[in-house]
Amino acid sequence: MACNVNVVHQAAMASAIGQPNKPSQRPNASLSAPSNSKPKSCCKLLLSSQSSFISGFSPSRPQTLTPFRSSRAQNFPVVGSAKAEPLRIMISGAPASGKGTQCQLITQKYGLVHVAAGDLLRAEIASGSENGRRARECMEQGQLVPDEIVVMMVKERLLQPDSKEKGWLLDGYPRSSSQAIALKELGFKPDLFILLEVPEEILVERVVGRRLDPITGKIYHLKYSPPETQEIASRLTQRFDDTEEKVKLRLNTHHQNVEAVLSMYEDITIKVNGSVNKEDVFTQIDSALTQLLDKRQATSESLAA
User: Fold this and answer.
1) Which sequence positions are flagged as catalytic?
2) What are the φ and ψ backbone dihedral angles of 275, each rounded to 5 degrees?
3) Which helix (H) or strand (E) element contains residue 272?
4) What's the whole-model pTM score?
5) Residue 273: phi, psi to the nearest 5?
6) Which residue intervals make up region (Disordered) (predicted)?
7) CATH code (residue 221)
8) DSSP string, 72-104
9) Residue 200 lies in a domain
10) CA distance 186 to 157
11) Which residues pair with residue 210 across a beta bridge?
């Protein structure tokens, strides 16, 4: 009876591929079982699996096709687990709120590309370009640099391959609702907006005592983070906008604009106490980023399942 089923099956398969219905040749006697022996269990398994496989094509029972398992190697494509999208983070705060320090700690742990709008502006000023000259005039008066200057610099940096691959940490930008709207229109949306909050009297003290090493680019503070050697101390400079008069102008501008910016990102904003030591500040930020990554990884795994 098993042989009759096999012949019918071979005939059906031959007809399906357009080949003549030829009887199967008798195998070599030395390899075939005696005519009176019972069918092998592997033959039953193959027939049963093939019948099950073919029944999946029944028009009366539309189903998702699932190939039967076989001990032989199959050439089916292997689908890997989905890779989570890189993080896109914005961090904001008044001058000397500790953004630079926290950005360094964040990038060290999470590998994000640090994009500082202030550094981009200062590089433009140092180049002596017309945009740099206009930017310097605005900064000296404690005003925001025109959007058309800053937006394009930020856009170009965020579109660099390293930013797209590793994710980015946008430091000190946007500083106004118009800048936030411009970024949104360009397709840049953060996953998290971090706001550092520090009392104004502490901010002024931090700014006035801040010094820059022009060789290494490292920021020191005469009270909180003094230079390691006298040689370094002798070459430190004060940024032109780090005087008490200018920082108060900048703080006024910051307070006038921060609420408008927060309204654009209120559903993804966390407020962090920036007046404590840097380790405690980072603990607050690290907790939020870890939760964000865990949630994103869980989502990626569920989509890949």
Assistant:
1) 99, 175, 210, 239, 250
2) -90, -10
3) strand 269-273
4) 0.64
5) -70, 110
6) 16-37
7) 3.40.50.300
8) S---PPPPPPPPPPPPEEEEEESTTSSHHHHHH
9) yes
10) 13
11) 221
